[in-house]
Amino acid sequence: MKKKNNRDDFLGTTKRLLRNRVGGRCSNPECRVPTDAPSEEGPEKVNSIGKAAHITAAAPGPGARRYNSALKPIERRSIHNGIWLCGSCADKIDKDDKTYTVALLHEWKRKAEESAKREQGKKLPDEQDAVNTLVAAATGQTAVFLPNLMANASKAASGYLEKLDPRFAVETNFHNGSIHYAIHPKEPVDFKIISDYIYRKELREEIEESVKHGRDFVIDGNHVKLEGIPIIKEFEKRYTINNYKFEHLSRKNITVRLKTISPDSKAESFFYDLHGYAVLGTESIRIEAGGLNGLFLTKIKMPIEGKTAEVIFTVNFKLWDGLQLNSIQYFDKIYQLHYEMINNWKLNISAESEGIRSYAVA
């Protein structure tokens, strides 16, 4: 029988095998959505968003991704050349053969089939599982495993704490085995910091420095108590609080530009733009900005009354570890800045916010 077109399409049995071998789910490991569900059109109808996609194209021509002319037609339409995907992921791989290579698609297929084996006969997590797990944790009963347990726990903890005191937005995260809470006031909040006698002088100095110079500060949770914030009271019931970190919320996003001027004022050199924030204190402005993919950081303390500014540059040389000299990013520019600074070039620093030049240091 003569073929109606030159495509080596899959047979119906091949499509069903591709779908069934991955449990009716998309083979993209970052997707894995179920592809089949009942249709409202009738009890014998199925609404499927799945596709049996060719790993190497079914036919040559424009838009044929990963076409392999060395394959025979029977190989091109065999199950070995197919992968089960949702419609969205199938469209993606048919528009980009640089990202979605033959090797990658075979790897997707292998992992999807392995996942189907592991999941067979096991209950898959649903939305209610997150709630059930948290209840089990609270009651001391054994909790079930959930891949996204930590994210759900963080969300539940934040929601609970925000209900205790709606004046705050709460973020929860787990880092290095410790729980970290970020509490952001939605409005001005009055509270008291009560310190023991030993820590009182150090606490006063920390707060004064913060007010004067816009500095964030950390206080020792073993020596102080915070009153007037119900969320903190809840923490104290449940945890040993090691530290409280206070950050200024009145930060202004800024762009910092560095310029060096030669001793004879005949030459100028411009560095890369740096992005960060500025905090206004009663006596100075604190600026922190970085760039070059985390390689370069500058910290500036600029007195309001126009005295000499304090400028610190930090280069994270660890990012260059193990690299050849000719492949180190930004080496020439950082070396040039260092050379000019030690040879008495004048440094000019300007900071802009929303296109308006706010601060300048010469």
Could you please describe the fold and organization of this structure?
By secondary structure, the protein is α+β, with helices and mostly antiparallel strands. It folds into 3 domains: 12-119, no CATH class; 129-246, no CATH class; 252-361, no CATH class. It is 28% helix and 29% strand. The protein is built from 9 helices and 18 strands. The strands form 6 sheets. Strands 11, 12, 13, 14, 15, 16, 17 and 18 form an 8-stranded antiparallel β-sheet that branches. A two-stranded antiparallel ribbon has the order 1-2. The chain has a two-stranded antiparallel sheet with strand order 3-4. A hairpin with a 6-residue loop joins strand 15 (296-303) and strand 16 (310-315). Helix 5 packs across helix 6 (149-164). The longest helix is centred in the N-terminal third of the chain and has 18 residues, at 102-119. It is flat.
Number of helices: 9
Main sheet properties: 8 strands, antiparallel
Which H/E pattern describes the elements? HEEEHEHHHHEEEHEEHEEEEEEEHEE
How much helix, percentage-wise, in residues?
A: 25-40%
CA-based gyration radius: 31 Å
What shape does the CA trace take?
flat
Straight-line distance between termini: 85 Å
Instruction: Enumerate the spans where pLDDT stays under 50 for 5 or more consecutive residues.
Output: 141-147
Strand percentage lies at: 25-35%
Overall domain count? 3
Protein structure class: alpha+beta
Summarize model confidence as the mean pLDDT. Answer: 81
The total of beta strands comes to 18
